[in-house]
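Q: Here's a chain of 135 amino acids. Please give me its 3D structure as tokens.
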Amino acid sequence: MRASPNSDMVVVWIDIWDSQNSTWAKQLINQKFNFRNDIATIHTYNMHPGVPQCQNCWQWDHITNKCHSQGWKCAKCNSPHKTINYWEMAGCYKVNPKANPPRVVTVIGEPCPHNFKCVNCKGDHSTDDKQCPFW
């Protein structure tokens, strides 16, 4: 799999039929071999190797300073603010006794009562959640 359309790096995943102690895999890690005119190195598997997730729009395949999005997007609620400001901007700290039902302040560290929405899979979790299928 090419890391990005403009990349000269290719990532290949290989499943190894091995013992419970991973004897064969341990022998292969960091070994080098020739592939066409290049030397390739065998590494262990890492999630999304070389494929960045933008901390601005939370899409995959580009870094934050190359993002073309107009402004920030919150990883939790997709609103136009930085994720670090979520608690203040989403109203978790704001008390509104006239709301129906009345809204009480959310204590820091307690689960947020709001529903999150992932920008990648549209699931009911924050975009930076490691349980997202895109991870």
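Q: Can you summarize the key feature?
A: The radius of gyration is 21 Å.
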